# Entry
Amino acid sequence: MLSLLYFDVEDFVSPPDHPSHRLPGEFARIMTKHNFAGGCFHIIGQKVRHMVQNGQDDDIKAISAHDVSLHYDRGSIHPTTAEETSHLSWHEAVSRVLFRERPGVDLLMDVFGKCSALTRHGHTWSAPIAYALGRMGLPFFNGPVKPANHGVIWLCNNLDIRGLETELLLDQVYRDTPAFEQRLAKVLELLDDLTRRTDHSSMFGCHPSYTLYADYADHNFYHGLNPKLADCGPPAEAGADVATVLRNFERFIVALNAAPNVTWTNVAGIKHLYRYRPVRVARRHVEEFARRVVERRGPVYTDVLTAAEGLCLLARARLAPMEWYEVPAVMGPLASQPADGAALSDEKALTNLAADLIDYTYGTGFLPAYCKLPGLDIRIAPASLVVRLALAFLGSDAEAVGPLDINEPTLLDGMNVPSEEELAGWLPHGTQYAARSVLEDMSLQAWTFKPAFQRGDYADDVETAPYERPMILTEWSEYDGHVVKY
# Structure
């Protein structure tokens, strides 16, 4: 099993001489001492500025020997990126993410010489954020969609690397040796269990400042929107002994290095291994997708195709059957519209609906909210169209499955997806965060979900390429004469 150890480095409010600011560098030096290959520091941009302004050059050098990712440029300073984007249209939100987070990415590159990802800060996530990071060539770390048996997934046409969701946090136990020893035994037991049921699972090291404090060194978390530090006072001390924290952390690293069946890597390493995705597939993979759609009577994903990709390939097969298909980098729809299944039993209408889907999707990069026939007030939802196209592809009778008036995919069923209450209840969000809008986008972009695999894990009849490759349809001329004219 692949694993990594990550730290959320967030404290930029403590006095400059507080030992909290030195702990990330101390942890980095301990990991370097023991040749531990899995250390990843997820750092708020504002924290990095604090380090530079206060001359922490030795700590910056120590951390630079390990992996570094952005934990949002301004963390929970309001308005957060998630708060802003939750009120914007898709394209406005993507532009806003690039405006808000590109400076943090550039900052980490300037200071540490690297930036491997953007890491979720609490519940600060939205589909446009995940997509925008992919346009910068950066995966998202620890997104909220967590299937049971996959540590790395594709979502919003970007890699998402899973963080470990567990109650076995070590934040406050490094300072208490008996408690640390009990927790360490549980962590090692969990690691052993994970090696038998997943390909990758991250470990959370700690919030370094929380090993010393009784609460988080984040005033926005407890004191409202952007309070003045002088009005809040410093975080509450826990009476922790720094030497004890460091001694137990070193014991932790030694134990992780000795854990059997675990290969330690980092975020950059995971991206390197999993960044290839299918870009050209043999017909049998479209057939497998179609069979699963019919079995489920609705949109599905496979190990090779997202629901959006599979729908597009079924539409292309309707217009021009081939032995090989280029896989489009297509997004889900940007809205949901009421639709019905009328006219789907008409063969000519089905061909024209497939053509409408191809025209819209390959022109915009998104699935349409519905497909339509000219001159008719009929709207066919993608979730209905994918079933009818699958039946036609397999030569099955549409009447055998009854009415096809499906409007919404349920692709996230059975996954660990946060509720509206959980999203809205994260303290820094406050009333400025439109949680329902975020969940609606998440549901629509479920069309882009599928597990990620290493390049060598795909079959020989699946060609792969780096995921930054744009969507280009090179066989467009082959459709001439195949579309039934309106």
About this structure: Residues 57 and 468 are 34 Å apart (CA to CA).
